[in-house]
Amino acid sequence: MALFSRRKKTDDAVPEVQTSAEAEVAPEPETPDAPAESVPEIGISVQAFRGVGADAGPEVNLEEPEAQATPATGDEVPQRLRSVSTTGMPDDQKAAPRLPLAAALPPEQTHTVEGLNDNVLLREALAELEEGASNEQLLGVMRQSLQGHLYLRVHGDAREQISSGKPLSVGVVRDGDRSFMLAYSSGAALRASVQDAEDAASTSAIAQPVTSVYQQVVSGGFTGVIIDNSSAPHRAVFPTELLQKALDQGDEDMSVKTLMAAPRDEQTPVRIGEALAKTRSWVAVNDGGNGQPVGIAEAHTTDGRRFLQVFSHPLEVVALGRQDKPMPFKPEQLAKVLSEHPEIAGVLVDVGGPSIAVERDALSAVLVLAIDLGDD
Questions:
Q1: How many angstroms separate the CA atoms of 225 and 172, rounded?
Q2: What is the pLDDT of residues 314-351, one digit of tens each?
Q3: What is the pLDDT of residues 211-265, one digit of tens each?
Q4: 135 in helix, strand or coil?
Q5: Cα–Cα dist 99/92, whole Å
Q6: Model confidence, pTM
């Protein structure tokens, strides 16, 4: 976590970035009310998860209704594997607005303001937004926000507030009874928000994990969060209900997503395999149709090897724009599928990017769970 303070409004020098302890956000921030016109309309809701990539259908990936729920024991899993494209959208959806996808390899850590590391995946996803962005595009941005950090703008000296044990007085905009916490993906977005502010000289900032920020929005009674408010149209508004649902669907540390976005070395596949053995993942399924059983998406490489597609969060499935639905998969269920299909070479994680193919020899932490099931 890092913080900085602007010395004066006209000072273009980059402030020194320092580390600090964990911070608490005040439920009632002591920041001046912003004019109502600075609050964008919320164009996305929990219902936006429903039917994304399909014409219609029940909501399946947030509430996990009984029709789509994964068996608790892990003994019954979809048996049919089906090949799908490893690219984002199927051919019949190429005319749809492009969703914020990413390259397979995680981006190099960069900054738009010296000393302040950007959340590059989120920054690049926001850069693709235009006026009138669709729900699908906003959900694509949200899935890229679920790792890394966000900057919070603080009224006063953040370091002093932390050291004195005070809750942080974070930046907020209000519109009547609605209140939105302000957060920023990059140093440039943060600088844009303070360069013309009257209180710029007394403004500081702090970087916190995204999940921590979202939890603070939920627990603080806010209506939602606005990311990069001064960078329209490259900004996003996420209501609190949506944040709560997104947090509920991931593990506390977003361990798999965090590993996918981090720099990689030869041990990365093993670490991802270990993470998959400890937390549920998601698979992409369809309803079979014509009496066919539910099928789990797999991918074929150019050399003919087959990989099961798994996802760190249901939004990873939604963001592909396919007619698949996310289905929660416990580690034991993943182990069962892999053990019953020895022809599967491994798993392909988060095909929308960053992604990685993890082969069987790196999935020993998962495969051993199938042995334990057999012993039972």
A1: 9
A2: 999 988 878 788 999 999 999 999 999 999 999 999 99
A3: 999 999 999 999 999 999 999 899 999 999 999 999 998 888 899 999 999 999 9
A4: helix
A5: 15
A6: 0.79
pLDDT in tens, 28-55: 444 444 444 467 776 675 655 543 433 3
Q: Identify the burial level of 333 via C-beta atoms within 10 angstroms of its C-beta, where 0-12 means exposed, 13-18 middle and 19 or more buried.
A: buried
Distance CA 319, CA 324 (A): 10
Q: Please provide the DSSP assignment of 311-329 as one string.
A: ESSHHHHHTTTSS-EEEEE
Three-class DSSP category at 200: helix
Q: How many CB atoms lie within 10 A of CB 21?
A: 9
Nearest to 74 by CA among 356, 374, 319, 314: 374
pLDDT for 134: 84
Alpha carbon distance 194, 87 (integer Å): 39
Structure tokens at 176: 């009547």
**Neighbouring C-alpha atoms within 13 Å toward the C-beta of 236:** 31
3 state DSSP class of 274: helix
Beta bridge partners of 206: 3, 152
CA distance 193 to 205: 11
The one-letter amino acid code at 147 reads Q
The alpha carbon torsion through 241, 246, 250, 254 (nearest 10 deg) reads -110
Cα separation, 187 vs 222, in Å, equals 24
Distance from the Cα of residue 310 to its chain's centroid:
15
Nearest Cα residue to 311 out of 339, 352, 265, 259? 352
DSSP secondary structure letters along 84-132 = --SSSS-GGGTTSPPP----SSPPPP--SBTTB---HHHHHHHHT--TT
Helix (H) or strand (E) holding 155: strand 149-155
Q: Which residue has the tokens 């030869």?
A: 266
Query: In this structure, which amino acid lies at residue 288?
Result: G
**Residue linked to tokens 């998860």:** 49
Q: Report how far residue 288's alpha carbon sits from residue 277's, in angstroms, rounded to the nearest whole number.
A: 28
CA 220 to the chain's CA centroid: 21
CA 261/CA 271 separation, integer angstroms: 13
Q: Is the dihedral of CA 223, 228, 229, 234 positive or negative?
A: negative
Say if residue 97 is preceded by a cis peptide, omega within 30 of 0: no
